[in-house]
Amino acid sequence: MLASLAAFAGQAAVIYKWTDAQGVVHYSDQSVPGAQKIYMTSPAAAGPGAPSNSNVQTSAIPGNAAKQEYSIIAVTSPTAEQSFFGDEPIGVALALDPSLKAGDTVTWHLNGQQLADQGPGTTQFTLPHLDRGTYAIAATVTDPQTGVTQSTPSVTFYVRQPSALSPQHRTP
User: What residues make up the domain containing 25?
Assistant: First the structure.
């Protein structure tokens, strides 16, 4: 029984969904007051390189029918649990099928905070230098005409930095 619980824990992720005062829906791996807890299947459970749509959140402005616009929407880079070392660039990419429709916007969130530097149609970019730590990135695609949104679950990745106490691990 314990083994089956451990297997479930390895395949499920918990994210939190909440709406701010401006009506913007947010998703994060960290709880905030009033957030709804959502259990999602881990992208890693589908196997490497196989984005799954079973863990996509779709919502709409009240009065509009919520329909799935994209059959695939997944953060493909970084991969779940990937580690980056030193000042290694961190490429970020979103897979969409069909490709991003004219007028649709992409909003990126790093650790639950919106990344303001990305344009509304950006599906690939490089993150600037990040300090040592654990990070979670997610994307939301919005059709402004219908209010339909589709969001990926957060993908957790790690940034490691060489230690001043361990000079043999410094990058040249």
Answer: 2-163
